[in-house]
Design a protein that fits this description.
single chain; alpha/beta; Rossmann fold; 2 domains; 6-stranded mixed beta sheet; globular; binds adenosine-5'-triphosphate; binds magnesium ion
């Protein structure tokens, strides 16, 4: 058996009374891609943060090339060749791609930073990785997907032996995923061990050689990917089998009652000529690649950034011109953004305030604390947020559980229209089903829901109608029950139907 690059041996970690890891042992090998799997809150991020020196284990050993090591912190781990792309991106938005990637390795000539040489080095590095992003632009100007690629490039620039990727593709669309996958394969060829934390099963089978599953603080399975199938993995993750993504049978939309009507909506260079109706009790989906304009559309409908647009929006037949989220909220519209970190969560506030913030009107001018506790408690239960602690700071919840908290906010607020941008980003397979069941229930109560998503399979199992966007335009409307994921992808990528060869 090959010697492992890095090994976690019998690791324990608790946060207060929450025993997150209880004797976890995993080995990581050179030149392999290894998956780390488990439901939201299983302890995946915690484990890799321990291996990265962010947290200290309560008990257990870390071995690097067979030798026990103790880190002084993440910088120390990095020096030893252990690198990590966190679940929430960590870059300097105001700085250029070059500045972010070059980090502390700035090239100097006569004691002065030679930016030209730095740029050239970064360009060569990006080219080698097959990334075509402009090295001179500010990171904040890039799409979330491109930012993710830059972050990975930044870590690889440090020439690590082992690279942990915590849900790297959760905000990427199909086309961008391909770039990421190519990148991972290239890293593997160079002998790096890539550890992939993911909730996407296809990724495990497409990329990984080995996998380990965490459940309730222990490793419940590990081995060669070839020995597993989806059912076995979900069984190991959940401790039971689930029927994933059955197609919902009938629409329960009331097609006599229009909740929202959008007429020829446009924002220069983002999208144009968008017209559609949202009916009472239906789930309407916008599909399309990242960059197709669907996120911008969602933001415009909610009044984010008060952008100027052309065209008209009607809510209940009356003109609605949101210039700020406050306007949208007052009209009974809720919104779950794509980027949790920037727009979604109130960092450093407890879970309770994050849920109740949108329903202040309902709680009265003098907030009824008891009622607030009741409602937020119920929401945490409905969305199965773990741990069920109203007072825990939101940043201390696992990524998937943060997403569930953000989702429950608008649903607690009794909105009539809810806009969701990539609602299941970072959410495990079991919880995805729960979220869609919840959305179905809301729709059956008459709420109109619009999902903006690049997860074709999920749209197929959850929506009533699908509108496909490509390069800022609507290219096709499909009835969900009558379409397939191939058809949706075809329109998303090519904007037209495939010509069948006979
Ligand atoms: N700093 C912290 N303080 C308190 N609890 C924490 C902290 N970090 C993590 N936890 C808890 O540890 C548990 C495991 O979280 P972790 O982030 O490791 O899960 P995960 O497997 O990465 O889940 P996800 O798929 O949702 O990202 C959760 O119950 C979480 O609330
Ligand atoms: Mg995590």
């Amino acid at each position: 058996m090959a010697e492992s690059v890095l090994e976690a041996r019998d690791i324990y970690k608790s946060f207060g009374s929450n025993n997150v890891l209880e004797g976890v042992s995993v080995r990581f090998y050179e030149g392999r891609v290894q998956a780390l799997l488990g439901v939201n809150g299983a302890g995946k991020s915690t484990l890799v943060k321990i291996l990265q020196g962010v947290y200290q284990a309560d008990k257990g050993d870390i071995l690097l090339n067979g030798e026990k090591i103790v880190y002084s912190g993440p910088a120390d781990a990095l020096k030893r060749g252990i690198s990590m792309v966190f679940q929430e991106l960590n870059m300097f938005g105001e700085m250029s791609v070059t500045e972010n990637i070059i980090g502390s390795h700035r090239i100097k000539t006569h004691g002065m930073i030679n930016w030209k040489a730095c740029r050239q080095s970064v360009r060569a590095h990006l080219d080698e990785l097959g990334i075509s992003i402009d090295e001179t632009v500010q990171v904040k100007e890039l799409s979330l997907a491109d930012q993710q690629l830059v972050e990975i490039a930044r870590c690889v620039y440090e020439k690590p032996k082992i690279l942990f990727l915590d849900e790297p593709s959760s905000s990427l669309s199909k086309a961008e995923e391909e770039i990421l996958y190519r990148l991972i394969r290239r890293l593997k060829e160079t002998g790096i061990c890539v550890v992939l934390i993911t909730h996407k099963m296809e990724e495990v089978f497409e990329l990984c050689d080995q996998l380990s599953v965490l459940r309730d603080g222990r490793v419940t399975a590990s081995g060669d990917v070839a020995e597993f199938d989806v059912d076995r993995i979900t069984g190991d993750m959940l401790g039971k089998t689930v029927d994933i993504f059955k197609r919902s049978s009938v629409t329960n939309g009331n097609y006599d009652k229009v909740l929202m009507e959008v007429q020829k909506l446009g924002i220069p260079r983002k999208f144009e000529d968008i017209s559609f109706k949202l009916y009472e009790g239906e789930i309407l989906a916008f599909a399309g690649l990242v960059g197709s304009g669907k996120s911008e559309l969602a933001r415009a409908l909610f009044g984010v950034n008060g952008v100027k647009y052309t065209g008209k929006i009607l809510v209940d037949g009356k003109p609605y011109a949101p210039s700020a989220p406050y306007d949208a909220s007052a009209q009974g519209i809720g919104y779950v953004p794509i980027s949790r970190k920037e727009e979604g969560i109130f960092t450093n506030f407890e879970a309770k305030s994050n849920i109740s913030s949108a329903m202040l009107a309902k709680l009265g001018f003098f907030i009824d604390r008891k009622k607030e506790d009741d409602i937020t408690g119920r929401m945490m239960e409905e969305f199965n947020v773990r741990p069920r602690n109203l007072h825990q700071n939101i940043v201390n919840f696992s990524g998937g559980n943060q997403q569930k908290i953000v989702l429950s906010r608008w649903i607690a607020a009794d909105k009539r229209i809810v806009l969701l941008d990539e609602p299941t980003r970072g959410v495990d397979v079991g919880a995805k089903q729960e979220i869609y069941d919840n959305l179905r229930r809301l729709a059956s109560e008459g709420i109109g829901i619009i999902i903006f998503s690049s997860e074709t399979n999920e749209l197929l199992s959850s929506s009533d109608r699908i509108i496909i966007m490509r390069e800022g335009k609507m290219v096709k409307e499909l009835v969900t029950a009558e379409t397939t994921s191939e058809e949706i992808l075809m329109y998303s990528i090519a904007g037209k139907e495939a010509v069948k060869e006979v």
